[in-house]
Queue: 4 jobs
Job 1
Amino acid sequence: MKLIGPFRQVITLANLPLRGKLSDEQLEIIEDGGILISRDKIQQIGNFETLKSENPNLEIEKIEGTQIALPAFTDSHTHICFGGNRANDFAMRNAGKTYLEIAESGGGIWSSVQHTRNASEEELLETLVERIDFLIALGITTIEIKSGYGLDVENELKMLRIIKRAQQQTKATLVPTCLSAHLKPRDFEGSNQQYLQYVVDEILPKVKEENLAKRVDIFIEKSAFQPDESKVFLLKTKDLGFEITVHADQFTPGSSRIAVEVGAKSADHLEATIDEDIAFLAKSDTVATALPGASLGLGEKFTPARKLLDAGAILAIASDWNPGSAPMGNLITQASILATFEKLTTAEVLAGITFRSAFALGLEDRGKLEPGMKADFVTFKTNNFQNVLYNQGSLKAENLYIDGMKIK
Ligand code: NIG
Ligand code: FE
């Protein structure tokens, strides 16, 4: 067994509920704490000196200087496998152009599809691994990554295979999701329903065969797929054995209801969710995921995180890092900003980027420093954990541990 410490504070997030609002008084803070590790799991958290005296023959990993430790973070929604860049979309939006005008002039998701299709596998892998490393440097050890810029059999499989190759190059956990239902590609001859059927018939069986993803996502929106056809599609994917997540209520309400009805693991975005649907989500086990990076990238309102928590929903916070609507990628900055606008407690934000976002991915073995949990944790050089969010992302993570091993 190995004892790591002493830390000025260890914030365990132990005993916090999965759903609903949290007060900061509920946070367990172990002063002068130590983290006792057995193999790749947390054995015990407690006072460093006490743990040391109670357990002779320990390997001790001494922490120098003043540091605090938190469970490592989970980013449960990203699109970080892509070619090209959409800086021109960003500039045009800010100069007053609408989404439709930008799409018509060659921008939008379709432009990322063309860049991704044209990029070589090596190029895509290299930039994907760079983005993974950026997220790891923030203290994130579990990262969901979507396809969705290929939009045909060959290129969707290409994206998912690259995500699988990236997993061989990192100790972080990558969770791939098939988002072939991002948009009907311009070169598909047929209706939306026919394209969705093509995804079911041609893409998903191969995804399954090669074990490339266990999750399916869809963008339900006026400009993408309509509610009824989406529901039919999602029920078919469920029959094929996939878990479901949905891009819901980004601009138009109504689709989070479908996510709940089909038993989705999460409904993400929710910027336009109406009160009635907040109540519906709050009664379900579907995680409501706020994506403040998309609000900041588009200049749109934030997800009603406060209302969702007050109603009893499971609220996760993720980066949505993508070349179009959310180019920043800094989940800590985004979560801190969401807290100031939505009035979220520190406990609610930390829960939203740890065990609640991990739950959205079906991973219940991480995000809390409790006995038996995966020993993934991040440290910061500070004497007070509140400084992590207070500094809005500018306080950099110091060290990062995955399965009890220091990787940074
Ligand atoms: O989550 N809303 C749809 N999909 C992405 C944007 C993808 C893009 O613009 O490239 C999102 O915001
Ligand atoms: Fe997204």
Note: The longest strand covers residues 2-11.
Job 2
Amino acid sequence: MEVIATKRLSESLGAEVLDIDRDRLLSDDALPGACLEALDVNGVLLFRGLHLDDATQVAFCKRLGEVVSVASHPIPEITVISLDPKNPLADYFRGAFEWHLDGSMDDIPSKASLLTAHVIDEEGGDTEFASTYAAYENLSEDDKQRCQSVRVVHTFEASQRRMHPDPTPEQLADWRARPSKEHPLVWEHETGRRSLVLGVTASHVVGMDLEEGRDLLDDLLARATAPSQVFRHVWSVGDTVIWDNRGVLHRACPYEATSPREMHRTTLVGEEAIK
Ligand code: OGA
Ligand code: MN
């Protein structure tokens, strides 16, 4: 018998893991491996209504791999995602409204992230996911060839410009003081799979006319995130979702800054640089 039963959630990615309770998350020795395998296959896993408390969430994540410690919360592995102005990271989290990979400016982006819904928004605040493995696979052979040697510069400025299209000189200077990061467009994973490295931080293409490079990036992102390629999760309180951050773009759907929406997040340490 399979260790976990799953149900597809969309044509392209996402699966619900069925019949799991909190005790099994912590005690079933076969479960972590089965979840990681299902995550590889499906890109996103949904556990409905688990109502994980922070300690259980962290304990489960530690069974999946090394967990990032952020220390902004009494439990250092938990980050509270909310736009509450009292949250020092609120402005940073506004960047999540655009398609992105977490840590796309890091040497090694995180392996996976896990969110549990504690308070949901009445109107918005769904989360959308799109596979960048599928984005690569869906290219024509010509396009695959064309993308193979392309290198892309990722900048903090590119991500901020979407939220602040008319920056002050001070804002610009601050953004430009941050280091940029160059990545190949096609990530050749150690598994042999390939994915496209896209998202809000992608600024321009090395050695290509600025407009032409942006058109290429915009076109690839539009194809990767076409409605037929997207899984959208409408949250209920207590749902937990994990995504494979190496091969899945995600974004939050709009919700007001005054919303009580609150997600608790844990992040698995990445193991592989983009190359
Ligand atoms: C994140 C993120 C999206 C959301 O936690 O990295 O992008 O819907 N969250 O809150
Ligand atoms: Mn994110």
Note: Residues 96, 100, 102, 250 surround manganese (II) ion (ligand 2) (CB under 6 Å).
Job 3
Amino acid sequence: MYVRPVAAAAAAFLGLALTLAGTASSATATTPAPSSPSSPSSPSSRAGSDPVRLVGAPVVYAHRGASSYAPENTLAAVDAAAAMYVDWVENDVQRTKDGELVVIHDDTLTRTTDVKARFPDRKPWRVQDFTAAEIATLDAGSWFGARFAGARVPTLRQYLDRVDDNQQRLLLEIKKPQLYPGIERDTLRVLLEAGWLDEQHVRRRLVVQSFDADCVRIVHALRPDVVTAFLGTPPEADLARYGQFADRINPWHTTISAEWVAAAHRVTGVHGRAMEVDTWIVDDPATARKVQAMGVDGIISNAPDVVREAVGGF
Ligand code: G3P
Ligand code: CA
């Protein structure tokens, strides 16, 4: 069987990473922190952050791309964020029946594509029941607006290439990993093949997050250098445990207070720095200013231009 050299190298590399993580008592203890060495006390010391961010201004992330302006999780949404000079985009990754990683939020195709019309007898239209070739034929844009007709559900590889072409950065969410055993390794393989696990990307342009703590733990074990985030709002007393495998805790904005954010900041993350907090989904100026006053490090928004204007960020 012919094995593509890049894929073979990726498999070998990930295998080595897993072996190393499995034999070390703490894989992170020897992992260099992914910071900018040129200005260690500036905001650039924030793992994966923008080095020119003003002190006090949260980083703004385009949630599912700039999804108030283009269909979520499509290349058009990535480009919409780029058009407003928002360099961080967030996405959701799931897996098809034949093992391709695709970018889509729901675990069914019904809300954001024309799958019901195209495949009426395939109820409940789960992502994992369709091949990548089938999904590639679906219209993922018309539901949002006629001018987006023909937009596709991108593969993760297509998505990474577009984000790279746009010189943007990626907050990658592994969605519902319990449905897709091994998706952590698959995701890292695609990232590696696309050139997203080199030092430059890992240090400044990539964060991997999940609502599933075990998923985040696995990503960290496989690639201890990658910046990771747990999605949720753990009790203050539990926060330190997340610092064993995560750099960030990313909570829903309605669940936090200034005290909770301060408690998270007192925890040391897995790369030896204060835990960071990026909250979601904030789309209006008043709420943006409210969470900014709480001290959050980042705001994840469908309308990143609105939030950026409100908080004075980049
Ligand atoms: O990045 C945070 C946010 O995306 C989590 O919620 O459901 O939009 O994936 P959801
Ligand atoms: Ca998400």
Note: The chain is about 35% helix and 15% strand.
Job 4
Amino acid sequence: MENKEKSTFKNLGLSEKILRAVENAGYEKPSPIQQMAIPSILKGRDIFGCAQTGTGKTAAFALPIMQMLDERGNYPQPMQFRALILTPTRELAEQIASNISVFGKGMDFSICKAYGGVSLNPQIKILANGVDILVATPGRLLDLFAQKKLNFGGVEYLVLDEADRMLDMGFIKDIKKICTALPKERQSMLFSATLSTEIESLAKGIVRNPERISVSPDKPTVEKISQKIAYIELENKFALLEKMMKARISKQDDSLALIFCRTKHGANKLAKRLCRIGLNADAIHGNKSQSARQNALNRFKRRETRILVATDIAARGIDVKDMSLVVNFDLPEEAETYVHRIGRTARAEADGEAISFCTTDDAHLLRAIIKFIKKEIATLVDNPYHSDSAEKASNLKTILSNKAQSVAKKITQIADAPARRKNGGKTDFSGRREKSTKTNSRKKFSEKKIGGVLKQKMKRASSKDFQKTHGAKKSIWSALKNKAGKFKKR
Ligand code: AMP
């Protein structure tokens, strides 16, 4: 009932001016995060929001802030700004500023973007007169502050976007420094794609008695994305990518594809190889200047290039319509990054596909991702380069069986030790005589230790819940139990 009432922008308490802004942006109905956040922000509450990428977070905070700025009608003082939006990357700062410009069409808002990699002077010039909204990355903001080109005295609203990413990128000190310089009387909003104890403790110092808003925190993967794994050998990765990209062309699919590589060098190399076979691609990563990154992004948005190869630095800031495919050419090292990467597709109401290449060596990364998103990922069917070995390495049964084998081996070694000693073999592997009492107590200790670990694991394995969810592991653990039983009898 409540949701139905809130399912139009009009019912969220937005003013006529802002409703026109929403219309300008082409939004018909509010997304869940917008339904939850907008009324609370308009009431003056601080917000602690946990939301997936692509859920419409920007409008959720920008629309009510713009409305309140407009209603209060204050003018910014020189070198001051009334709303500060902090983002981890330049791309995201660009994205947010461009959304705000669309919403603010026909309204009299001044906006400034402050991020590194570009000249300071234009930013200093805009800030000199004061602005309504400043969208900034922490490093550049502190740079300008240190040079006395801005002051924080006029901040009425603070937004910390993608807080988890900020922490990952090591901005924690910068953020704390900025927050201590801000006026105590302000309304603050903190958004994060994931929750952790670090985020909770960061939030404590920033938001006061916040309204907690959460959009599917237990399911961090955007549901509409069709996710597939291509098990493959390293040397076949490029051939599969080529096949996939050419199949899209032959189907006259002119939507855009984003490909993720682990390293800057890898991204450059891949973009070059794609260009060499006639597939127009650009690369963006942290080694490229801001203008080169922006140009590549603009060419992609204008569809002059249909393939963009990126490292993770670009993952969060890219919001391009019609991006129907994300390829993880290399799996990410952090499971959480997987969610941010694939969240570049299926933006707003669109559908999307994410295909991840997994080699034998990457099996552990895939398992970490599956554990994080709490669901298995289907195998890509149309893969002429399918690698059984990579699939086997990623299989939970194989991983557990390897673990079980190594524990069983340890048990056998310990069980065989008394026989070795009885044989008069008080010699250790290096041929030296053992000191028997010390060795015995050490042996007893490790038997106890392994016994303890085994006991714990077997207890867990025999619980009903565990067997329900991990049926495949049962046989492995019962084999282990037998082994342990034999060991006890000796
Ligand atoms: P965000 O999570 O703010 O980066 O938004 C993701 C994408 O969804 C952007 O392209 C927005 O323009 C779009 N979007 C946000 N809210 C809505 C809405 N209510 N209806 C349709 N599209 C939206």
Note: The pocket of adenosine monophosphate is lined by residues 27, 30-31, 34, 54-59, 319, 347-348 (CB under 6 Å).
